[in-house]
Design brief:
Elements lengths: L8 H13 L15 E5 L2 E4 L4 E4 L2 H4 L8 H11 L12 H18 L3 E6 L2 H15 L5 E5 L8 H5 L16 E5 L13 H13 L10 E2 L4 E2 L1 E6 L15 H11 L3 E5 L23 E4 L11 E6 H4 L17 H15 L3 H22 L3 E7 L2 E6 L9 H11 L4 E3 L2 E6 L2 E2 L5 E4 L7 H20 L1
Amino acid sequence: MSDIRIATAEDQVLLDKEAKYCSYGDTVHYIEPPRIFSRCEGSYVWDTEDQAYLDLQMWYSAVNFGYANPRLNNALKKQIDTLPQIASQYLHKGKIELSEMIAVDAKNKFGLDGRVHFNVGGSQSIEDSLKVVRNATNGKSLMFAFEGGYHGRTLGASSITSSYRYRRRYGHFGERAQFIPFPYHFRGPKGMTKEEYGSHCVQQFARLFETEYNGVWDPKVGQSEYAAFYVEPIQGTGGYVIPPMNFYRELKHVLDQHGILMVSDEIQMGFYRTGKLWSIEHFDVQPDVIVFGKALTNGLNPLGGIWAREELINPKIFPPGSTHSTFASNPLGTAVGLEMFKMTSEVDYGAMVMAKGKYFLEGLQDLQKRFPIIGDVDGLGLALRCEICGPDGFTPDKATLDYMVEEGMKGDMVVDGQKLGLILDVGGYYKNVITLAPSLEISYPEIDLGLKLLEQLLVRATTR
């Protein structure tokens, strides 16, 4: 095991400039000194010393289809040579066709007519969804959201994100959320199956509507003070927590009974991360609004958006000028998005992702049997979790996971004669969960390699 690396002279010059000139408001140095990266391809990134790192988090699931994906890169290059720019209030073919593709897919899957509205990223699209929801519910600004939920860090999005630290210094600007427990079975009450716990959580939520004195419901007029429930079908930053399959169906029944909309935040789990285009598809419910971003353009262009039911977003109820962004529906982003849809339609992409996810999960389950500090593993498609705990296999152990992340970034592990680093993402309520979001194009040998590297980190963690 090597000592902590020292930055090269060239990197140190850049780090000194960063310390003086860059805002730290959007900066997290997971290790010291931080790495500076110079190139990427497939499932790998390389630093300025040309050290390769296998990336198992892929830019928080923004690069679902692999770094420098040739087909998607070429779509961007082609668009640059034809129509690289046009004001978002004007029409171009890509905007119309990408909207059609998303809306027709939703019609086929959910049986609902709807429309698509674009913006420049996930948080901005959450803001647009809040406008749609408030507009459709006569200005109601109270929302339900989940404990452990993450929807972004713009002002409205942070108000419905469960972490108080994201809004502590800024206060509230209209939206407020009541946070409801998520069916996190590993840390739920003992003696219940996963499905029973899911039903229990729904029942606890439903009791809010039993009487006006629970604070959310006026039975005399049949109205709730709350406009919508914002859900991540699979929690992202919360630790890739996967609920029981009965949960959303039962939750949606309660919401429909009380006129509360369901907004499905697919920013991190959309575009086949879980083996389906939208992760909500696994749960047999009809969302009222879908918010998307990140992997729509494979991280090549900041483009996100919303799909909403026709009743919520048609031009009569949501007329021109309701919201606007200079770079929304930009032609570079829509061109990549269209190519992504074409690429994933040419093979059974969902089946491919599910098969790889099953293989990866089986490897994690094998590690769990051999390392007691792994308290829980789970996965849906290639959204996988590995919870690091104390020797009892349950007590959260953030320190050990932090150590593993730092060791992975040293770039000094060796597998079959190849020196490698490993990039992991940390999530979870206690920051003790490895949230694994590898490239959906990852090969089976690369999955094996990732498991071997994880094993080396676990050995280091348990023998240090």
